[in-house]
Specification:
Layout (H helix, E strand, L loop, with lengths): L9 H21 L9 H6 L12 H24 L2 H19 L10
Helix pairs in contact: 1-3, 1-4
Length: 112
Protein backbone atom coordinates (compact mmCIF):
# COMPACT_ATOMS: atom_id res chain seq x y z
CA UNK A 1 0.00 0.00 0.00
CA UNK A 2 1.37 3.41 -0.96
CA UNK A 3 0.26 6.03 1.57
CA UNK A 4 1.15 9.71 1.48
CA UNK A 5 3.61 9.20 4.34
CA UNK A 6 5.46 6.38 2.59
CA UNK A 7 5.50 7.51 -1.04
CA UNK A 8 8.89 9.26 -0.70
CA UNK A 9 12.18 7.58 0.00
CA UNK A 10 14.25 9.08 2.83
CA UNK A 11 16.61 10.67 0.27
CA UNK A 12 13.62 12.34 -1.41
CA UNK A 13 12.46 13.68 1.94
CA UNK A 14 15.97 14.87 2.69
CA UNK A 15 16.10 16.76 -0.61
CA UNK A 16 12.70 18.35 0.08
CA UNK A 17 13.87 19.33 3.56
CA UNK A 18 17.01 20.94 2.12
CA UNK A 19 14.91 22.93 -0.34
CA UNK A 20 12.57 24.08 2.42
CA UNK A 21 15.44 25.02 4.69
CA UNK A 22 17.19 27.01 1.99
CA UNK A 23 13.99 28.95 1.30
CA UNK A 24 13.57 29.52 5.06
CA UNK A 25 17.14 30.83 5.25
CA UNK A 26 16.58 33.22 2.34
CA UNK A 27 13.39 34.63 3.83
CA UNK A 28 14.90 34.97 7.30
CA UNK A 29 17.78 36.94 5.79
CA UNK A 30 15.39 39.16 3.82
CA UNK A 31 13.43 39.85 7.01
CA UNK A 32 16.64 40.21 9.06
CA UNK A 33 15.38 37.64 11.56
CA UNK A 34 18.00 35.70 13.53
CA UNK A 35 15.95 32.55 13.28
CA UNK A 36 18.42 30.31 15.07
CA UNK A 37 18.53 32.41 18.24
CA UNK A 38 16.57 30.93 21.16
CA UNK A 39 12.83 31.60 21.02
CA UNK A 40 12.87 33.35 17.64
CA UNK A 41 11.39 30.50 15.57
CA UNK A 42 8.62 30.22 18.16
CA UNK A 43 7.89 33.94 17.81
CA UNK A 44 7.71 33.61 14.02
CA UNK A 45 5.30 30.69 14.39
CA UNK A 46 3.27 32.82 16.84
CA UNK A 47 3.05 35.44 14.06
CA UNK A 48 5.05 38.08 15.95
CA UNK A 49 5.61 40.54 13.11
CA UNK A 50 7.57 42.87 15.40
CA UNK A 51 10.58 40.67 14.57
CA UNK A 52 10.62 42.09 11.06
CA UNK A 53 12.54 45.35 10.96
CA UNK A 54 11.64 46.08 7.34
CA UNK A 55 8.19 47.48 6.69
CA UNK A 56 7.89 45.77 3.30
CA UNK A 57 8.55 42.25 4.50
CA UNK A 58 4.94 41.33 5.36
CA UNK A 59 4.69 38.85 2.47
CA UNK A 60 8.15 37.44 3.16
CA UNK A 61 7.30 37.04 6.84
CA UNK A 62 4.03 35.22 6.07
CA UNK A 63 5.84 32.93 3.65
CA UNK A 64 8.61 32.32 6.20
CA UNK A 65 6.03 31.31 8.79
CA UNK A 66 4.32 28.98 6.32
CA UNK A 67 7.61 27.35 5.36
CA UNK A 68 8.46 26.77 9.02
CA UNK A 69 5.17 24.92 9.34
CA UNK A 70 5.94 22.93 6.18
CA UNK A 71 9.36 22.05 7.62
CA UNK A 72 7.65 20.74 10.75
CA UNK A 73 5.21 18.68 8.64
CA UNK A 74 8.07 17.22 6.60
CA UNK A 75 9.90 16.22 9.77
CA UNK A 76 6.72 14.58 11.06
CA UNK A 77 6.48 12.58 7.84
CA UNK A 78 10.09 11.47 8.24
CA UNK A 79 9.38 10.56 11.88
CA UNK A 80 6.54 8.27 10.88
CA UNK A 81 8.50 6.40 8.25
CA UNK A 82 12.14 6.45 9.38
CA UNK A 83 14.04 5.11 12.32
CA UNK A 84 15.79 7.58 14.69
CA UNK A 85 19.23 6.95 13.16
CA UNK A 86 17.97 7.82 9.67
CA UNK A 87 16.38 10.99 11.04
CA UNK A 88 19.67 12.02 12.65
CA UNK A 89 21.52 11.45 9.38
CA UNK A 90 18.95 13.47 7.41
CA UNK A 91 19.08 16.34 9.92
CA UNK A 92 22.90 16.36 9.94
CA UNK A 93 23.05 16.32 6.14
CA UNK A 94 20.69 19.30 5.96
CA UNK A 95 22.75 21.22 8.54
CA UNK A 96 26.00 20.43 6.74
CA UNK A 97 24.57 21.51 3.39
CA UNK A 98 23.31 24.84 4.72
CA UNK A 99 26.11 25.70 7.14
CA UNK A 100 28.32 27.19 4.45
CA UNK A 101 25.45 29.16 2.97
CA UNK A 102 24.20 30.86 6.11
CA UNK A 103 27.30 31.33 8.25
CA UNK A 104 26.30 33.18 11.43
CA UNK A 105 23.62 35.35 9.83
CA UNK A 106 20.78 33.50 11.50
CA UNK A 107 22.31 33.10 14.94
CA UNK A 108 22.81 29.76 16.62
CA UNK A 109 26.54 29.98 15.98
CA UNK A 110 26.02 28.99 12.33
CA UNK A 111 24.50 25.57 13.13
CA UNK A 112 21.00 24.39 12.44
Amino acid sequence: MNTNASRFLPTDREARLKELDLAIVRLAIICKIRLLDPGIAERVLANDTSLCDIQHCNNAFRTLRGLLLMHYNELNAINTEADPQTMRVVAQNVRDALKGVIGGQLGGHGAM
